[in-house]
Design brief:
It is a single chain. The protein is an alpha/beta fold. The chain has a single domain, classed as Rossmann fold (3-Layer(aba) Sandwich). The chain has eight helices and ten strands. Strands 1-10-9-6-2-3-5 form a seven-stranded parallel β-sheet. Strands 4-8-7 form a three-stranded antiparallel β-sheet. It is globular, with a radius of gyration of 18 Å. The two termini are about 25 Å apart. The mean pLDDT is about 95. Bound molecules: 2-amino-2-deoxy-6-O-phosphono-alpha-D-glucopyranose. 2-amino-2-deoxy-6-O-phosphono-alpha-D-glucopyranose (GLP) binds next to helix 5.
């Protein structure tokens, strides 16, 4: 895993957005894996700006979102489809018919999960997957104890996740306890993975992800198995890591290497 430690959430969003911009410039028909939550919101704003400034186009892009609440259809303001439309798709030149979010209103959710996996395969697989992380180390809605090779499926949410996400729902509003989520195995199949984490409430999860054992107790630790995963952290999210100096040193060496390659 590449660990990038930056000063604050602004720098994290900029760094993450640049990875996506470079990906789209190199491969305009990229298949993007996208995420919801508050963490990626400013990255999406930067992608919108880059698109409106003509730096990148999404015309040939396909996208697959990580997860959706089971029981909410896409017109529900708390659904992840609604979030994606509002935060990104409505403001860029993407063909919305090529944006896929697991169907929260599926009559047959088990069949819908299989179909979602097939749609990803038919698209040629995910080139780059964006991730946030839950306080308990979840990625997508893969809660602790999720199988490390799991595929898209229905997942029950933990009380901790329901409580964390309650802030998006108004008082008395129905909040689903089930979701459809890409599995950890689905995420690991992406060619590149970019995980963003900001704030000290993510510090324990990041510690377990980077320096803990590979374990279903911390689903994000499965990224230790990935060949091309980058974790972009602010200082607060990185604050419990023991080896920060080493990670910073690696980044300096990486930059030197990139600079010398660019010259040659
Ligand atoms: C939800 C999403 C995750 C996201 C997590 C953290 O549970 N299913 O994909 O990473 O929230 O969200 P936030 O970025 O708001 O902390």
């Amino acid at each position: 895993m590449q660990i990038v430690i930056l000063k604050n959430s602004v720098e994290v969003a900029e760094y993450g957005a640049n990875i996506f911009i470079e990906q789209l410039q190199a491969k305009p028909d990229s298949v993007l894996g996208l995420a919801t939550g508050s963490t990626p919101m400013s990255l999406y704003r930067q992608l919108i700006n880059a698109n409106q400034a003509g730096e990148v186009s999404f015309v040939k892009v396909k996208s697959f979102n990580l997860d959706e609440y089971l029981g909410l259809d896409g017109s529900h303001p708390q659904s992840y489809r609604y979030f994606m439309n509002e935060q990104l798709f409505d403001h860029i030149d993407i063909d919305k018919s090529q944006t896929f979010v697991p169907p929260g209103d599926a009559q047959d959710p088990i069949e819908a999960c299989e179909r979602y996996e097939n749609q990803i395969i038919e698209a040629g697989g995910i080139d780059i997957q964006l991730l946030g992380i839950g306080r308990n180390g979840h990625i997508g809605f893969n809660e602790p104890s999720s199988g490390l090779m799991s595929r898209t499926r229905v997942k029950t949410l933990t009380k901790a996740t329901i409580d964390d996400n309650a802030r998006f729902f108004s008082e008395g509003e129905y909040q689903p306890h089930l979701s459809i989520t890409m599995g950890i195995g689905t995420i690991l199949d992406a060619k590149k993975v970019v995980l963003l984490a900001t704030g000290d409430n993510k510090a324990d999860a990041i510690k377990a992800t980077v320096e803990g054992a590979l374990s279903a107790s911390c689903p994000a630790s499965a990224l230790q198995l990935h060949r091309n995963a980058v974790l972009v952290l602010d200082e607060a999210a990185a604050s419990k890591l023991s080896d920060c100096d080493f990670y910073r040193h690696i980044e300096v060496e990486n930059q030197k290497l990139r600079a010398s390659l660019a010259k040659s």
